[in-house]
Design goal:
By secondary structure, this protein is an alpha+beta fold. 57% of the residues lie in helices and 15% in strands. α2 packs antiparallel against α7 and α2 runs antiparallel to α10. The two termini are 78 Å apart.
Length: 417
């Protein structure tokens, strides 16, 4: 079996044998490319998916901690003695607060908002207008009050601060562009008390916007704060139609979830808030084509490797042809000339080091052949000269005389043979 294979292989040229070796190698590389591409693409997709989930969790945790800190600091203000006693007096229909207490309360609340990095405004109001404290960092004034205790009490507690959406409940109007997206509110008084009111702290939208605007998964990915299924703040990267589609999918989302819209793959994680009056969450929107961005890089890299390998194969094939195959063909042609008695052929074929060795060996062999032929010619010439000399001696006169004398002597003794 092995001898049969060897015989078959010996019947092929060097070029053919080289191709028979390179073609399986190229097929093996292509198969490896397909396998590694499939495995690598799957791993990269999982990695992008994992990164998106990790960033959403991190942002949710960071924003949640910021909001918890804002809630704790605002609750601390409501636990102060002057505010606590005012609340008790309102519920028992007594004079809410003394003038000095009002001044102290006004100072404490406005200083609290000024020094807080998370709040932008505060309003304290009683429906008998006995108390009204308002501070806004834009120095706006209240133009009207829209206060309905019974309506607000459906969603807002009269004991603890509740997360609300100021721009939806709008308990008062100002000359400012509008209310913020998130606030903390509690009602003052009871259903039966004479005096009723509220205190509202509005969270600066910059706290929400800055928490997501610098986060990136891919070049065109986006992060949003989600409030009751609506995306806060607009983005130039997302069209309104796509935005509406995502908001529609978020309408009934109360748990961490993932979904795909027309152009984006979305990751949503709700925030856990104390005394929630609204649903908040973080949404990551990654363009579908960028979910496979690393796959494109992998594809380019693997294709580049395959291209380099093919170029190397072509280079090896060309080099073998130039350095070995063609010189061997020229050597074969010169040897054919030698076989036709052209002994003056010069073996000067250019090629690899092995070809040079063959050149030198064949040249030395031809020199020895020419030397042997020359020696043989000289020996033949010498032999012919010797034979001619012998013939010449045979016809020499002295030799003839001796022969006749010998015949005479034989005849004289009666020898007739």
């Amino acid at each position: 079996m092995s001898l049969d294979i060897k015989k078959r292989l010996r019947g092929y040229s060097l070029k053919t044998l080289t191709l028979l070796f390179l073609i399986p190698c190229m097929l093996l590389v292509l198969l490896s490319y397909l396998i590694f591409y499939d495995l690598g693409a799957e791993q990269l997709s999982k990695q992008t998916h994992k990164n998106a989930g990790n960033i959403v969790n991190q942002l949710s945790q960071t924003l949640g901690q910021s909001l918890e800190a804002a809630y704790a600091s605002a609750s601390a203000q409501l636990s102060a003695w002057n505010f606590f006693s005012m609340r008790q007096n309102i519920e028992t229909d007594q004079m809410p607060i003394t003038p000095s207490g009002y001044y102290s309360l006004h100072t404490n609340l406005t200083d609290f908002v000024k020094n807080s990095g998370d709040l932008c405004s505060m309003a304290l109001y009683l429906n008998d207008s006995s108390i009204f404290v308002y501070y806004n960092e834009h120095q706006m004034v209240v133009s009207s009050i829209n206060f309905d205790y019974a309506e607000l009490n459906k969603t807002v507690s009269n004991r603890e601060l509740t997360w609300v959406i100021p721009k939806e409940i709008h308990p008062y109007e100002t000359g400012y562009e509008g209310h913020t997206s998130l606030g903390l509110m509690t009602l003052l008084g009871t259903d039966t008390s004479k005096r009723q009111g509220f205190i509202l702290f509005e969270i600066d939208d910059a706290l929400l916007r800055q928490s997501v605007e610098n986060a990136l998964i891919t070049p065109n990915s986006m992060f949003f704060v989600v409030q009751d299924g609506s995306l806060l703040f607009n983005s130039d990267k997302m069209e309104s139609q796509e935005r509406n589609e995502i908001e529609k999918k978020l309408e009934n989302c109360t748990d961490e979830t993932e979904f795909q819209s027309n152009r984006f793959y979305c990751f949503y994680k709700p925030l856990t808030l104390e005394e929630p009056g609204c649903e908040l969450g973080i949404l990551a929107a990654v363009p579908v084509e960028e979910m496979l961005l690393d796959q494109k890089i992998l594809t380019s890299a693997l294709l580049g490797i395959i291209l380099v390998f093919l170029l190397l194969c072509a280079g090896v094939y060309g080099s073998l042809s130039l350095v070995i195959s063609k010189p061997l063909t020229r050597l074969e042609e010169k040897l054919i000339q030698v076989s036709e008695n052209h002994l003056d052929v010069v073996f000067d074929v250019e090629g690899s080091r092995e070809i040079d060795r063959i050149n030198r060996a064949v040249t030395g062999l031809m020199e020895r052949i020419r030397t042997l032929i020359s020696n043989l010619d000289q020996e033949m010439d010498s032999r012919r000269i010797a034979e001619l000399n012998i013939l010449h001696e045979q016809i020499n006169p002295h030799f003839l005389y001796n022969t006749l004398d010998t015949i005479y002597q034989l005849c004289s003794i009666g020898e007739i043979r």
